[in-house]
User: Fold this.
Amino acid sequence: MKFIPTFLCFLIFTLSASSQSYTKQDTLRGSVSPERAWWDLSYYHLNIAVDIENQSLEGNNKIRYKVLQPNQRMQLDLQPPMSISKVLQEGEELSYSRDGNAYYIDLIQKQKPNDINELVVYFGGKPRIAPNPPWDSGMVWKKDDLEKPFVSSVSWGAGSSQWWPLKDHMYDEVDSLAFSINVPRDLVAVGNGRLLKVEKNKNKTTTFHWYVSNPINNYGISFNIANYADFSETYQGENGPLTCSYYVLEQNLDKAKEHFKQVPLMLEAFEYWFGPYPFYEDSYKLVEVPYPGMEHQSAITYGNNFQNGWNGKDSNQSGYGDKFDFIIVHESGHEWFANNITFKDIADIWIHESFTTYSEGLYVEYHFGKEAGNDYQVSLRNKIKNDRAMIGNYGVNDIAYSGDNYPKGSAVLHMLRQLVNDDVKWRSILRGLNKEFYHQTVTSEMIEDYIAKNAGLNLDHFWDQYLRTNEIPVFEYHFFDRTFSYRWTHAIQDFDMPLKITLNGQEKWLSPKTSWQKMPLEADNIDLQVDRNFYVPSFFTNPK
Assistant:
């Protein structure tokens, strides 16, 4: 008898989410409050002046919105030490009150359903400095190796309201954005979208005017300031010519021109798997920054030192992780999953990180072959902790999410591909997601239902097991008296995921359940292997 178990032992973990406590501010940030629900975002014009020496910002934000239902009180968000100094509507100054990060604006003008109204919010201060960008976010005030300013904003998790006033909840994306950034004259400021105009001012400053014509999520909005040099190319993609622009420190220009030849390779792979790049109108950009990188929409930030892998290393030890630049591939993958398809609540962050981590293996498969892609996907499992469920708690801005949303989420999607058992259909599902939910905010249930429907599978138990618990089902089996017995253990009630195995050299599909299933055998010598593309431990038991 020969068998190769994935694990011989396992641990049962207690969900950390269940014991986590939340504050009133968590609820104010994470819930769709009555003061948020009555109005729909249409347009921002964010106008900021950046004082690099004092590490401060001041400016204003014009907010255009559609009235959905009558209400005279609006919630905006801005975190200390930043503060709002004035709010105007139709030239009238409005009163407001503050509860921590939440500002409540009292509107004078009657808010009538279907009206399109505007207000202008003036603000300033010294925004929070990021302790560990991009994971612990805020402002990054650095200098490059020539001692010139190197400045970035990062808003992941803690929110864009760290540095500007807005409706800081992911459910409502702004439809378009104008972004004006005023900086010292010898520097370049890069925002999202396309550069419309560069304005030289009399006070030895320059204002860069950027415009985003597509919906954009809050944390995807960012600005970067440095002694940038830039170059561009045109990629002939599925939707025609796509402008690709690159902003790097002047001293790194030659390295970037060589290293960024990977960008067309990335675009080719991801347009194949996911469909057209979602923001042709706004272009694609890579912008060098003084931290690893982030998926800022149409302005992907890059700090991987012009090396393959993660800072030159194969991060998952697959043999393929050093064949491409991790930041270019991963962060750009977010243009489809995070920026095109965006969660309504951070509790569903698996939608962003699972699909994007999975995209790394699809990139490998596209350029190096299917088995190479499988090698990459399987190697990612070494990082899985199963410390908490992938889906967190809703309505509280649950930023203490599980890191398993990356490798475990990828493993789950890779396994789902095996269940679909049709690569053409699987690719159509991935492309279909980006078409069905184009420029939309979504819930986990919307993604789950779409995949199940288009796969033609009942995946209710599958999703509940892998997304909503931290337990991994174990394939338990034994052989006795020429009978093969098997079942799922450590699984939710009625868990019934099919499983592909090789039994004495022959591929078979089993339908295990949480009760014992039996299969007659013709021989006593048994060689059983679980297909490596399934993320399930296997456990042999002695029936005697």
Q: What stands out?
A: The radius of gyration is 26 Å.
